[in-house]
Amino acid sequence: MVDNDELSARLDTSDEWIRTRTGIGRRHVVGPGMSTVDMAVEAGRRALQSAGSADIDAVVLATATPDQICPASAPQVASRLGLGPVAAFDVNAVCSGFVYALATAAGLIAGGVSRRVLLVGADAFTTLLNPDDRATVPIFGDGAGAVVLRAGDPDEPGALGPFDLHSDGELSDLLVVPAGGSRMKTSQNPADSYFSMQGPAVFRHATARMAESSRAVLKQVGWTVGDVDRLIGHQANIRILHATAKQLGLPADSLVVNIERTGNTSAASIPLAMVDGVNDGTLQSGDRVLVTAFGAGLTWGSTVLRWPGVTPA
């Protein structure tokens, strides 16, 4: 765990500066020898324990920080959890990854390909950061969260509603790690190997797109804004969350928020917020929940559900 005072000791920043701009007080950072797969396995183990069964026939891992560029990390997660030769693959939509992967897992079930899917959102995003960059280091943390999806009836608690998914590749340079892929495998400029973002532009697009997508999915399911009990947004920045709720006309106390103690954990942020929301009583069985996210790509998307009676492991 790294708190703001520890960062302030080596960066030109302060606890007050970080909190007022991001709402973050501390964040987890992976130590030497720990990877995305390690975190994903632990999150998956807890989700399986909570579900009361390891009868899984697919693993979907939402991550932008796989252990290697090749192969995908999901098969390693499945193997280490002892799930056998099940289908397993990664989904990379960065901070929108969990919502995209949720739609993918729901599609596997709806299409009859799978009966029960383990969905994990995991990112060791601090490994992509320049340790001296005051603009990014205070914002991001590392983590993993997981859920189990199963086939069921459309009117039972936990049933996912429609999805609204979008992207805009023309703005991909707003959040980017230039080097490491097929276009630029290596670079003599160290900055090309680190994540960078254009903060003000990201703020504008994130709030507008999440609000727009939320309205679209509410229209599809036939809910009004007044029907929403809880909003679980990607935990990127407390000001983005509040601005999105305000644009939708939702009260700030409808938000499920844990960013103060996690930072932005990319694809892990929504499932981690779900777990904390259950543990602190914010999420109650039967709540009508709106889920929305925005990330690099650009990508964004939303869905809805009635919260089931679950107990995290």
Automatic annotation (TrEMBL):
Q: In which pathway does it act?
A: Lipid metabolism; fatty acid biosynthesis
Region annotation (ACP-binding) ranges: 235-239
Q: Give the main location.
A: cytoplasm
Cross-referenced InterPro entries: ACP_syn_III_C, ACP_syn_III_N, FabH, Thiolase-like
Q: Which GO terms describe its molecular function?
A: 3-oxoacyl-[acyl-carrier-protein] synthase activity; beta-ketoacyl-acyl-carrier-protein synthase III activity
Where does it reside? Cytoplasm
Which EC number applies?
Answer: 2.3.1.180
Kindly list the GO CC terms recorded for this protein. cytoplasm
Which reaction(s) are listed as its catalytic activity? Answer: malonyl-[ACP] + acetyl-CoA + H(+) = 3-oxobutanoyl-[ACP] + CO2 + CoA
Top-level taxon of the source organism: Bacteria
Q: What is the uppermost EC class here?
A: transferase
Q: Which GO terms describe its biological process?
A: fatty acid biosynthetic process; secondary metabolite biosynthetic process
User: Boundaries of each Beta-ketoacyl-[acyl-carrier-protein] synthase III N-terminal domain copy?
Assistant: 89-169
The record's subunit annotation is: Homodimer.
Q: What is the annotated role of this protein in its UniProt record?
A: Catalyzes the condensation reaction of fatty acid synthesis by the addition to an acyl acceptor of two carbons from malonyl-ACP. Catalyzes the first condensation reaction which initiates fatty acid synthesis and may therefore play a role in governing the total rate of fatty acid production. Possesses both acetoacetyl-ACP synthase and acetyl transacylase activities. Its substrate specificity determines the biosynthesis of branched-chain and/or straight-chain of fatty acids.
- Write out the domain note: The last Arg residue of the ACP-binding site is essential for the weak association between ACP/AcpP and FabH.
- Annotated family: Belongs to the thiolase-like superfamily. FabH family.
This chain belongs to the protein called Beta-ketoacyl-[acyl-carrier-protein] synthase III
Organism expressing this protein natively: Prauserella muralis
The lineage, from the top, is: Bacteria, Bacillati, Actinomycetota, Actinomycetes, Pseudonocardiales
